[in-house]
UniProtKB/TrEMBL annotation:
InterPro entries: Ig-like_fold, Sdr_B. This is Serine-aspartate repeat-containing protein C. GO terms for cellular component: extracellular region. The keyword Signal applies. The keyword ATP-binding does not apply. Pfam families: SdrD_B (PF17210). Residues 448-516 form the SD-repeat containing protein B domain. The gene is sdrC. Keywords: Secreted, Signal. It is found in: Secreted.
Length: 701
């Protein structure tokens, strides 16, 4: 890979250009923003000043925790923060060639392309374990910056349709961030990154650039620069201060703060800002700008936002009289609060409230209230962004509130404006959930219904709650909802539901899932039995659901001229698979299901496809030059098996199915009927239907 990229960069290189003045760049029709190295800007002769070692940027520094040792490095290029979102931020670490864009015409006149080499920290383009781990850490940080928004930050290369906006009716678009190389490769101007303001959702895959060579690909530097450049594409401008285009922040320790659109490299807490700090030169409301005009919205609220709408505190397990708590949540707006309710017969409450492990933006306030709404305890350490509640509780019903807050004043701290992001609650609650005379009007049942993407029966970060699903207590056991005698509710935006005021007894809880949904683990059972003790809680009465893949094609009969070199057998096929985010390891098997002879040939035809230009290199299928699958078999009676890799999206799998072709080495029309069958087997073991195509062979004159 090293030799190939070196050659390509030489081919794409041009003679040194005269350095463009900043004024000249900013006056051009397309407004361009540079993110120059903050340290370089402080030196009068930046073009000759040696670059210092990025000590504060490296893993293991006080600001950057050591890289985890238990990462699955094979998943580095399969990361997705919100699969299924219609807006995408693609972190392109493995190299890309940019052509036919504004960058080419402005900075590379007369040249064909701009080659961004793969991300590296050791001058080799073969990814080492430390590079793969660092890429995962960078992804975690960028995903946290965009966690409040309904956008997928991913290392899985999307189809071009997911990056560009084709016109009215298209609701899928995004931004590629090219990560790697040096500003000397083509820009010829000292910069950490470059982007076109407002280009998110444009009609071409223009991309933004983050140059990592001069900072050795350091984790925090690279992640902050990525978020900064994507911010530009969403319409944001620099946050500066008197005498400086980029404000570098203030404070120290865990609550040291800087704006993401400034120079946030040397502060651990980097947030979206509206310029509240002293001397701010730009007071643009960044959150409003991000969620206005580019199709990016806030995430749906995951838990109740008041004491009266509190969600039941999920219980992860029970050991004797102690209940374990493990909850993940998100503060997506600075007006959001997450509320939870639980009951105890009394004992020690010990809960830790932690923000994201890397790149956290959320400063947590955790508060505990009694059944009357009186504050019992709260935690928000002045010099930290986590919180902890530990105290003895008498029997009763309690509520927990999680909020994102500021610290000190905006001149030496920050407000709650950008205190957003993911958190976890973990710990224990002593005492059972049965509290006689305390729970309002009887016992409770609570649970959730979610799209179990990986079919493992466990709620993962990629699994989405299913909103608006009918859940009812099936008193007569017939599986049908009878509104005259049966109590019902619907799931909220996070897929949660609850029943309260129940008398002690056994209840049959039924979820009204229908259509293509199937329960994880097989079968068609949408019922659960919950035995409610007097004034007690039955929690985690859950339903995990998925949609099996479905291949359809209106055309069932295919006409084949035996003289033809290829006939596509499923050119109109469509793949319906709304809850699968990664097709890595999935296989399509195509075989002659009737009339098979040694002269039959099944193969993937090269040419234009619905996902791009499809080419065949030996046993590898490529689309627009990127390897998406490999294949074996297809001759005679041998089954053609196509195995997809992490680059395969639903659109790519569909395009490959549409490119499956048949030919025969015989010049005779066979006396028996022939047919072809195909099915998709996902890596998690879920199999699609069988798509059957009848072949009508004939011979042209």
């Amino acid at each position: 890979m090293t030799r190939w990229w070196t050659t390509l960069r030489r081919l794409c290189a041009c003679r040194p250009e005269n350095r463009r003045s900043r004024r000249g760049v900013e006056s051009c029709a397309a407004r361009v923003q540079f993110l120059e190295d903050r340290l370089l800007q402080s030196r009068p002769k930046v073009e000759i000043t040696p670059l210092p070692e990025p000590a504060d940027f490296e893993s293991g520094s006080p600001m950057v925790p050591p890289l985890p040792t238990d990462l699955d490095l094979s998943k580095t290029f399969q990361l997705a923060s919100l699969p299924g979102a219609t807006k995408t931020i693609f972190l392109d670490f493995d190299g890309h060639v940019t052509s036919g864009t504004y960058w080419n015409s402005k900075y590379r006149p007369g040249k064909i392309s701009i080659a961004t080499p793969p991300y590296t920290i050791d001058d080799s383009y073969a990814f080492s374990d430390i590079e793969l781990a660092t890429i995962q850490a960078i992804w975690q940080r960028v995903a946290e910056d965009f966690a409040p928004f309904d956008v997928n930050v991913t290392t899985i290369e999307p189809s071009s349709a997911d990056l560009v906006r084709s016109g009215v009716g298209d609701d899928r678009w995004g931004m590629r961030v090219n990560i790697g190389g040096s500003y000397m490769d083509w820009l010829r101007q000292k910069a950490g990154g470059i982007a076109i303001v407002g280009s998110f959702g444009g009609s071409a895959d223009v991309g933004a650039f983050v140059f990592t060579e001069h900072r050795f690909g350091a984790e925090k530097y690279t992640a902050d620069c990525i978020s900064h450049e994507v911010g530009h594409t969403l319409g944001l401008s620099h946050k500066g201060a008197p005498g400086s285009v980029y404000y570098s922040g203030h404070g120290s320790g865990d609550t040291g703060w800087a704006p993401l659109m400034g120079a946030s490299y040397n502060q651990p807490l980097s947030q979206w800002s509206r310029g509240e700090y002293a001397g701010a030169t730009n007071r643009l409301d960044e959150l409003k700008t991000i969620t206005t005009g580019k199709g990016v919205n806030y995430r749906v609220d995951d838990y109740g936002s008041s004491r009266t709408s509190a969600s039941m505190l999920p219980i992860d397990g029970i050991e004797g009289d102690v209940r374990r708590v493990q909850v993940s949540g998100l503060i997506e707006k600075n007006t959001d609060q997450d509320w939870f309710v639980f009951a105890t017969t009394g004992g020690l409450l010990s809960l830790d409230f932690l923000p994201a492990a890397r790149g956290a933006n959320l400063d947590i306030l955790a508060s505990l209230y009694d059944a009357s709404g009186n504050l019992v305890a709260s935690s928000n350490p002045a010099d930290r962004i986590d919180a902890r509640l530990e105290l003895e509780l008498p029997a009763g019903v309690y509520s927990i509130m999680v909020d994102g807050v500021g610290a000190r004043s905006v001149s030496d701290g920050y407000s709650d404006y950008g205190s957003l992001g993911q958190y976890t609650i973990s710990g224990t609650i002593a005492g059972s959930g049965a509290v006689a005379g305390e729970l309002p009007a009887g016992g409770w049942i609570s649970g959730s219904i979610w799209n179990d993407v990986d079919r493992d029966g466990v709620t993962d970060s990629n699994d989405r709650g299913l909103e608006g699903i009918l859940v009812f207590l099936d008193l007569d056991g017939d599986g049908l909802f009878n509104p005259e005698i049966e109590t019902s509710t619907t799931t909220d935006a996070a897929g949660r539901y609850s029943f309260c005021g129940l008398a002690a007894g056994s209840y049959r809880v039924t979820a009204g899932l229908a259509g293509d949904w199937l329960p994880t683990g097989g079968g068609v059972d949408w019922n659960r039995t919950a035995v409610v003790p007097e004034f007690g809680l039955v929690e985690n009465v859950d339903f995990a659901a998925f949609v099996p893949p479905l291949m359809v094609d209106d055309v069932t009969d295919v006409s084949v001229d035996v003289r033809s070199k290829q006939t596509r057998v499923a050119g109109g096929a469509m793949l319906h698979d709304p809850d699968t985010s990664s097709f890595a390891g999935s296989r399509i098997s195509i075989q002659m299901s009737a009339g098979a002879t040694s002269s039959d040939r099944l193969f993937v035809a090269a040419g234009m496809s619905s996902a791009g230009t499809l080419t065949i290199v030996k046993s590898t299928i490529r689309i627009d030059g990127r390897a998406v699958a490999t294949f074996t078999g297809g001759s005679g009676t041998k089954t053609l098996v196509i195995t997809f890799n992490a680059a395969a999206t639903r659109e790519i799998v569909e395009a490959v199915v549409q490119s499956i072709a048949y030919r025969t080495t015989s010049s005779r029309v066979p006396p028996v009927a022939k047919s072809v069958s195909m099915s998709l087997l996902e890596s998690n073991g879920t199999r699609s239907n069988v798509l059957l195509k009848s072949l009508s062979l004939w011979k042209s004159v």
